[in-house]
Design a protein that fits this description.
Distance between the termini: 87 Å
Number of helices: 9
Strand content: 5-15%
Order of helices and strands: HEHHEEHHEHHEEHH
CATH topology of the largest domain: Arc Repressor Mutant, subunit A
Helix content: 40-55%
Largest sheet: 3 strands, antiparallel
CATH superfamily of the largest domain: Winged helix-like DNA-binding domain superfamily/Winged helix DNA-binding domain
Radius of gyration: 25 Å
Number of strands: 6
Shape: elongated
Structural class: mainly alpha
Length: 209
């Protein structure tokens, strides 16, 4: 089964919830429609917060099943659903954990991802998180990307690309503001230009009488 070119936000949320709950509540996995919907609409550890109906979740599940990303269990009165992301995208467990957290919580730094991933996979250090993120970013069909650093921040944040290219704020697209020392130099240069212009104007006035 080929990798899907792009998932919707709802499809990504469903997939991520299935992966999360497999690790955090294994006794209730695979998930029923009710449990899956509740996980999608959870108010904590979610960005953005969603309010999906069971009908919307079912519609998204149908699409994910077409990609072979979700499997419906048979032999029960209540349909249950599990994910198949690792096999479809050929990802090791650490990479699955990182992509999942990015789908659940939005853009995050490598340090934040290491902290949030504790229940899915325990990374030794931040550098190991960065190594997996960079590997995902350099795949033929990249799954992650480092965002431009925003003013006032020390670390770059990462995003997943399963839903396509992220929509960046204009400020992020243009890059961070100049450093304070650069601004100081520019101001000093402008003052020198103004002083030179004033002197030139005074000289012209003196010549004109």
């Amino acid at each position: 089964m080929a990798e899907p070119s792009r998932l919707s936000l709802e499809e990504a949320r469903i997939l991520a919830v299935l992966i999360e709950k497999q690790a955090t509540v294994p006794d209730t996995y695979p998930l029923s429609l009710n449990a899956l919907t509740a996980g999608c609409n959870q108010k904590t550890a979610r960005d953005p917060v969603m309010n999906l109906s069971e009908a919307q979740v079912l519609a998204a599940i149908d699409t994910l099943r077409g990609y072979d990303l979700v499997i419906e269990s048979s032999g029960s009165r209540v349909a249950r659903y599990s994910h198949n992301l690792a096999r479809v995208y050929q990802l090791p467990t650490p990479a699955v954990a990182l992509v999942t957290l990015l789908m659940l919580r939005g853009p995050q730094t490598a340090a934040e991802l290491r902290s949030h991933c504790e229940r899915l996979y325990k990374f030794v250090d931040v550098s190991s998180v960065e190594a997996f993120l960079e590997e995902l970013a350099t795949r033929p069909a990249a799954l992650t990307r480092m965002l431009p650093r925003t003013p006032g921040t020390r670390e770059n944040r990462w995003v997943h690309l399963l839903c396509g290219e992220p929509v960046l704020p204009l400020q992020a697209e243009q890059g961070p503001f100049p450093a304070a020392e650069d601004l100081t130099g520019e101001v000093a240069a402008l003052r020198e230009e103004v002083a030179a212009l004033r002197a030139e104007v005074a000289s012209l006035r003196a010549q004109l009488g």
